[in-house]
Amino acid sequence: MSIDFVAIDFETANSFRGSPCSLAAVVVRGGEVVAEYDRLMRPPDASGPDDFDEMNSSIHGITWEMVENEPEFIDIWNELKIPDLGIPLVAHYAAFDLGVIRDALMASDCSWPELRYTCSVVLARRVLSLPSYTLPYVTNALGISLFDHHKALADARACAEVLLRFCRDSEAGSLDDLLDKHQVRWGQIKADEWNGSTRRQTSTPRSQLPPPRENADPNHFLFGKKIVITGALPGGVLRKEAQQRIAHYGGIPQAGVTSETDFLVVGDLDPRSLAPGANVSAKLKKALGMRANGGAVEIISGMDFLAYLD
């Protein structure tokens, strides 16, 4: 058996993903947990209590006083040497945790490492049928105990158990085998780019884009808005599912950016994508060009967009 991976979980001090204050990692080799790490840390550039939002602290219980004498993120990251383990990363809602790595490294003036990763939410959507794919729902469905949810080590342990259970139930001898069986792509980070771990799918033809629901609430934010999606959405949400939700609220899904487009949703938007000369998708390039010429199309991140679909 060659089931090797490291399950990670971050907690952040505030709404900026590059503000990690806690990191846990559970190392699995040969299908067995061989090491665990649980570290508190000062977020990059944090200097006092104002760096911690009350909302975040109420969720994970971590305050400035608990981390003010701890090493900074980059010191912990260099200590654990996670990229040097040579095995893939796994996280529940990996778009968030891998975003923490990217943003925290940028805030620390450090380059991105080369990593492969996948997401237990994306896999859970392929394996299970649940009303929600948050960690408590997934662990409950699998009979896995989850204590101290939103404590990094507890969540990383649970994520590791979920992946091992999926491997066992799918008779997969490796994560490559597991992802192939459930038609999920590896995500990857490189020094200058990243790709999300998503379900393998083909693009939806224009003729199959759902029409807006006739009796949709005209007061909903998305009502009447023309919306284009590019890139992989967070949490394994499929583009087709998002387009159906847009139509449910009276919005109008579009296949490509036009002069009438109201919003371009960029699955995992990085501020660097908006810089002149950045290597971006054709849709984002067109939208940026339109804005430069006075166009009104608004560019929003996948995470912000999904908030309108709840």
Can you give a write-up of this model?
The structure is a single chain. By secondary structure, the protein is an alpha/beta fold. The chain contains eleven helices and eleven strands. The protein folds into two domains: 5-195, Ribonuclease H-like superfamily/Ribonuclease H (Nucleotidyltransferase, domain 5, 2-Layer Sandwich); 206-309, BRCT domain (Rossmann fold), CATH 3.40.50.10190. The radius of gyration is 20 Å and the shape is globular. The strands form two sheets. A seven-stranded mixed sheet has the order 3-2-1-4-5-6-7, sandwiched between helices.
Question: How many domains make up the coordinates?
Answer: 2
CATH top level class name of the largest domain: Alpha Beta
Structural class, from secondary structure content? alpha/beta
Estimate the global geometry from the Cα principal axes: globular
Kindly state the mean pLDDT as a whole number? 90
The proportion of residues in beta strands is 15-25%
The percentage helix is: 25-40%
Distance between the termini: 40 Å
CATH architecture of the largest domain: 2-Layer Sandwich
SSE series: EEEHHHEHEHHHHEEEHEEHEH
CATH superfamily of the largest domain: Ribonuclease H-like superfamily/Ribonuclease H
Major beta-sheet overview:
7 strands, mixed
Radius of gyration, CA atoms, in whole angstroms: 20 Å
CATH T-level fold name of the largest domain: Nucleotidyltransferase, domain 5
Number of strands: 11
Count helical runs.
11
Q: Strands of the biggest beta sheet: in what spatial order?
A: 3-2-1-4-5-6-7
Q: Which residue ranges are poorly predicted, with pLDDT under 50 across at least 5 consecutive positions? A: none
